[in-house]
Design brief:
The protein has 487 residues and is of the alpha/beta class. It has 15 helices and 21 strands. The strands form 5 sheets. Strands 1, 2, 3, 4, 5, 11 and 12 form a 7-stranded mixed β-sheet that branches. Strands 6, 7, 8, 9 and 10 form a 5-stranded antiparallel β-sheet that branches. A 5-stranded antiparallel β-sheet has the order 18-17-21-20-19, covered by helices on one side. It is rod-shaped, with a radius of gyration of 37 Å. The two termini are 33 Å apart. 34% of the residues are buried.
Length: 487
């Protein structure tokens, strides 16, 4: 009875199917996505973006609240801030503060905005109440006419709850507003072809990853109250784009970033200032199309499935490590040189699982080969006789056929072909040293001298992981009559 109850073959198809099965099992979990997030975060943490020299934050912090009083403040405070920044030479003033409710002080705020000429206000997309549909929450009409531009303030959270980017354009069905950081650069709203979309449908376009300059507080930040209570500072604000927003705990929005996680979230105004800084330097990162990562994974799977069965064991690990390094290299080059993020987790998983799978199958094939040899020895005691060097070559060929199950063979006596299958006279190497096996890929050849006859024997071995084991066995098999083992 055979010991091999489960036949094992390591053709490219079988190895590829094994890779594909493990790959699909990993895909059923969130593992690839988590790996991609970890790689992206690691790249950001390892090389933070350089801040633009033209961005400054005026923070509504705890100190400002203690001096100016509880929130919300009267519009006169914001009017005074705009006037102070105008005198200091600020080029653009960007408010991450909602002015959706009219106030008796709006006229003064409007005059200050018009006098400066480049004040950007936010647009918020939210339902007015839990019973109403999503809609755009604008500043008051007077402030809209005085503003140089409007920008949306929405930040996207990934599946793990971390904010890494935002949509550059966001709005309802017919008009898309630029992100606040883009509006600060002069980007105007885009008209959107609704395609019969209802007016309450939220439309988003052009997602980009923001390369942060660091954690919260990295960009130059000045307290709102300090700016109001000190003389204008042209050396600080002259020619700069000034973002104004809340950083105090519990006031305004805050989001976790790769630099902070959930421990020290970044305020919304800092997020938009980082977006502006990256956009000014052309460093916003564009995600590659989803199909690009899948294509890379398929190419990697196919390449390893074809190459690994043909490699010796010592080279399998090298091939897998080299493949992993190449995939990481492609990702890093795209990210640093072209500002393109390619998710590589799907492709990276394959060489990581390929080495243990290929090694396990190689061991299984070797064990199967040894079991098959033992079974043949039990059934044919003659094979165990020590005088293989004197046995007829036709009998040796029969034993090799039973043991190795070759895909082809050729046996010649002098110039006469005694037996052949799937091998021809043209396949015989030009030179064969008598008594020594010669291996060319999956073909093994030997020439033996018996009396006055010169025999040539060639075998086409299975081109899988069992090939190396068979060739090592042949090298140690005594076939010549010289009394030396062929090597």
């Amino acid at each position: 009875m055979t010991r091999d109850w489960l036949p094992i073959k390591t053709t490219p198809w079988t190895l590829g199917l094994a890779f594909l099965l493990i790959f699909l099992l990993a895909e059923a979990t969130a593992l690839p996505q988590r790996i991609d997030y970890w790689l992206l975060d690691s790249a950001m943490l390892a090389s933070p973006a350089a801040p633009s020299p033209n961005v400054v934050i005026v923070a509504i912090d705890d100190l400002s609240l203690s001096q100016q009083g509880r929130w919300p403040w009267p519009r006169k405070a914001h009017t005074a801030l705009i006037e102070k920044l105008h005198k200091a030479g600020a080029e653009t003033i960007v408010f991450d503060v909602l002015f959706t409710e009219p106030s008796r002080d709006d006229a003064g705020l409007k005059r200050a905005m018009e006098a400066h000429g480049k004040v950007i206000l936010p647009v918020h997309l939210s339902p007015p109440s839990s019973h109403l549909l999503l809609s755009e929450q604008f500043p008051t009409s007077d402030l809209i006419t005085a503003a140089a531009g409007l920008g949306h303030v929405h930040v996207e959270l990934d599946h793990d709850g971390i904010a890494r980017g935002l949509y550059l354009f966001n709005g309802m069905a017919r008009q898309l507003w630029p992100a606040l950081g883009l509006a600060a650069s002069g980007v105007k709203p885009r008209q959107h072809d609704p395609h019969d979309l209802p007016s309450f449908v939220n439309v988003r376009d052009h997602y980009r990853i923001v390369p942060f300059v660091g954690g919260a507080g990295t960009l130059p930040t000045y307290s709102y109250s300090d700016v109001l209570n000190t003389p204008p500072a042209p050396d600080v604000f002259g020619g700069k784009t000034v973002f104004v927003g809340a950083t105090a705990a519990g006031l305004g929005d805050s989001v976790p970033t790769p630099f902070s996680g959930l421990s020290r979230p970044m305020s919304g105004v800092e997020f938009h200032a980082n977006t502006f800084s990256a956009n000014q330097q052309g460093r916003l990162i564009k995600p590659a199309p989803e199909w690009a990562g899948i294509v890379l994974a398929i190419v990697t799977l196919a390449a390893l499935a074809v190459l690994l069965p043909r490699m010796r064991p010592a080279r399998t690990l090298t091939a897998c490590v080299t493949t992993s390094a190449a995939i990481l290299g492609v990702c890093i080059v795209l990210l640093t040189a072209f500002q393109v993020w390619l998710p590589i987790a799907h492709a990276l998983i394959i060489p990581l699982i390929a080495f243990p799978i290929a090694s396990g199958l190689r061991l299984a094939m070797t064990n199967q080969f040894l079991n098959r040899q033992l079974d043949v020895l039990v059934r044919s005691p003659r094979v165990a006789l020590p005088d293989t060097s004197k046995r007829p070559l036709t009998q040796l060929l029969e034993h090799f056929q039973a043991l190795f199950q070759p895909q082809g063979w050729l046996l010649m006596e002098n110039e006469n072909i005694l037996s052949a299958q799937n091998m021809e006279l043209a396949d015989v190497p030009d030179y064969l040293e008598p008594g020594h096996w010669r291996n060319d890929g999956n073909q093994s050849w030997i020439q033996l001298i018996r009396g006055k006859s010169r025999y040539t024997l060639g075998l086409t071995l299975p081109n899988d992981l069992s090939r190396d084991a068979i060739q090592r066995y042949l090298q140690r098999l005594k076939l010549s009559s010289s009394g030396k083992t062929t090597r």
